[in-house]
Amino acid sequence: MALEALFDAVIVKPIETEETTFGNIIVPDLGKEKNEIAKIISVGPGRMLQDGTMKPLPLNIGDKVVLPTMGFTKLPYDGEEYYVGPGNQILAKINEKIDVTEILEETKELLTVEEIKDLTNE
């Protein structure tokens, strides 16, 4: 059985953030409420408009998003922690662009010059 969002709801899974350390001491971040970053697990079909058509959400499964500090409900399911809430309350979508030249530099030893030219269309 899998979780499925309905209407204009989204189900997200929080992404673990690294703790701040000073030497071997973990510095707790208790002073501020922070917005969480999460990965979308399920997106509902959208919101029903007055004319009877569905307006889909501009989100896709796998998108990284920034959640508000309040407004999403914690949903423990199958030993994992999820949040469910309305898609229109998501604050931002994080677009990560892949730098092909950076990847090619890292894999230069694994590829021949001809293969690199083919990949970069040179």
Structural class: mainly beta
Q: CATH superfamily name of the domain at 9-18 and 31-96?
A: GroES chaperonin
Q: Count every helix, treating DSSP H or I runs of 4 or more residues as helices.
A: 2
Distance between the ends: 48 Å
What share of the residues does DSSP label as strand, in percent?
A: 25-35%
- What topology, given as strand order, has the largest sheet? 8-9-1-4-7-10
Helix content: 10-25%
- Biggest sheet statistics: 6 strands, antiparallel
By CATH, the architecture of the domain at 9-18 and 31-96 is named: Roll
Question: Based on the structure, what is the oligomeric state of the protein chains?
Answer: single chain
Task: Describe it.
It is a single chain. The protein has 122 residues and is mostly beta strands. The chain has a domain at 9-18 and 31-96: GroES chaperonin (10 Kd Chaperonin, Protein Cpn10, Chain O), CATH 2.30.33. Helices cover 12% and strands 34% of the residues. It is built from two helices and ten strands. It has helices spanning 100-106, 113-120, and strands at 9-14, 20-22, 25-27, 37-43, 47-48, 54-55, 64-66, 73-77, 80-86, 92-94. It has a six-stranded antiparallel sheet, with no helix packed on it. A hairpin with a 2-residue loop joins strand 8 (73-77) and strand 9. The longest helix is centred in the C-terminal third of the chain and has 8 residues, at 113-120. The protein is flat. The relative contact order is 0.21.
